Amino acid sequence: MIASMIENSRLWVYRAGAPVAGRYVLYWMQQAQRSRWNHALEWAADSAAACGLPLRVAFVLTDDFPGANARHYAFMLQGLTDVETALRQRGVAFSVHLDQPPAVIAELAAEAALLVGDVGYLRIQKQWREDVASRVRCPFTAVETDVVVPVAQVSDKAEYAARTIRPRIHRQLARYLQPFTPDEAAAGKQDRQTPWLTPPCQRPALSDLLVDTSVGVASGFPGGQEAASARLDRFIREQLPRYHTDRNDPANGICSDMSPYLHFGQISPLEIAWRVKASSAPAEAVEAYLEELIVRRELSMNSVHYRPDYDRYAMLPAWARQTLDRHRHDPREVVYTRQQLEQAATHDPYWNAAQMEMVATGKMHNYMRMYWGKKVIEWSAAPEAAFETLLHLNNKYEIDGRDANGFTGVAWCFGLHDRPWGERPIFGMVRYMAASGLARKFDIDGYVRSVRALVD
Ligand SMILES: Cc1cc2nc3c(=O)[nH]c(=O)nc-3n(C[C@H](O)[C@H](O)[C@H](O)COP(=O)(O)OP(=O)(O)OC[C@H]3O[C@@H](n4cnc5c(N)ncnc54)[C@H](O)[C@@H]3O)c2cc1C
Predict the structure, then answer these.
(1) Which of 3, 158, 385, 413 could be stapled to 306 by a disulfide with Cβ–Cβ 3.0 to 4.6 Å?
(2) Does residue 2 register a pLDDT over 80?
(3) Which atom of ligand 1 approaches the CA of 299 most closely?
(4) Is the pLDDT of residue 190 over 90?
(5) Which residue segment(s) compose the domain that 410 sits in?
(6) Residue 413 CB–ligand 1 contact under 6 Å
(7) From the CB of 255, is ligand 1 less than 6 Å away?
(8) What is the CATH number of the domain that holds 390?
C-alpha cells in the first residue's frame, strides 16, 4: 500500500469522517494533472481498495479560468490525453467535464464514499475547494503533492526571503525528499475496474472552448507528462552538469524547461528533485538546481499561500512601497504604453528580444525575466501601472504564467523577498538592473540573434 508512504502532513482535511455508503471513491484531479508521483491519486486508489470500491477520477475544465487563453488550454488538453491513457491502462475511469468545478464535483460526489482532491495555492483553487467542501456529504481530503515539503510544515507565516525559508526547508528535506514510485503494474492490479463507468472519456477539444484565441499555441512545448519526462531526461543528461555555472546566461539555454509542466502539475517537483539528486552531475550543479526548484519555488508557494492579496500592489513590503512612492514623480526618460511593450517596440533590443521570446515561444529565459520586469518599472508612469502591466503580459504569454512563481517573480522586481539597495531615481532603494550588466556578463547580442532567428 503506497498510501503508507504518504505523510499525514500532506493531508488537508476539509470534511473529516469515515467513508459513507457510495458507489466509488472519487479523486477530483485539478492541480496535479498526472498519473505518476501523484500522492493524491495514490491516496485515493488505496482508499478505494480499502473500501472495496472502484476509483473514479474526474477533471473539470472551465473556459473562464482567470487570464487563461488558447496557449494554456492547448498545453493542458495535451496533458489530459496522457492522463487518460495512463489511467485507462490502470483500469481507472477518468472523465473530463466542461463546467464549474464545485458544481460538477458536488454532483459526482453525491455517489461517492469519499472525495479526494489535490492542492493548488491560488485564490480560485482555494475557493473551489471550500465551495466543494460546503456542498458534499462525504468526507473530503485534499492531498498536497505539488511541493516537496508541505507549505504548512515549512512555516506558518509568509517568509521574509529565501534566506529565512532555506533553513526551514533544508531541515525537513531528508524526511520529504524520498522516492514515491508505486509499482504501476501492481497499482493496476490493485485498482478495481469500473466497467459501468467507462464510456470513452469525453475530453473537450480546444475548439469546444470559448477561450481567447489571440495568443497562438506554443508549438515548441508539447504538453503532458510524457513530454515532461523526456525533457527532464535530456536536461539531466546534457545540461545539468553545467547548471551551476551557466544557468544565468541567456545565450546558452541551460535550463530544464520544467516550469510549464510544473505549473499544470504534469510533473511532480518531488520526481524532478529525486531524479536530479540521483544523477551523476557534480554536487554544485545538483545543489544549484535544487535551490531553484525547492527553495525558490516553495518560497513562492509560501508567499501566495499566506498573502491572499498576492496579485495586488499592496502586497509589497512597506519599505518597497514607501521608497517607490518617494520616487513616483521622478522624471522618466521614456514612458511606453502597454501596447508598445506588448509589441516589443521599445528602444532596447535586449528587452525587445525577451518580450519576443515570450510571445513566440511561451517561455522567456529566467535571467531575462528579471531584466524584463525591472525595465517596465523604469518605463512606466507609476509603479502600480508597471505591476499591473507585468502581471498582464506574464500571465497572457508565458505557458507557466498565472502561477505562484509568476505572481512572486513579478513582485520580486518591486522588492519582495529582496533587501533595500542604494537609492537611485525611479527605483528608490529597490534593486535596479542595467543593460550594461547584460552586455558585460553575457553574449547578449548572441541571445538577441537567436530570438530573431526564432521569430523570423
Ligand atoms: C518577472 C518574473 C516573472 C516570472 N514568472 C514566472 C511564471 O509565470 N511562472 C513560473 O513558473 N516562474 C516564473 N518566474 C520564475 C522563473 O523565472 C521561472 O520559474 C524559470 O525561468 C522557469 O524556467 P525553467 O523551468 O527552465 O527553470 P530552471 O532554471 O530549470 O529551474 C527549475 C525550476 O526551479 C524553479 N525556479 C527557477 N527559478 C526560479 C525563481 N526565480 N523563482 C522561483 N522558482 C524558480 C522553477 O519551478 C523551475 O521550473 C518568474 C520570474 C520573474 C523574475
Answers:
(1) 158
(2) no
(3) 43
(4) no
(5) 313-455
(6) yes
(7) yes
(8) 1.10.579.10
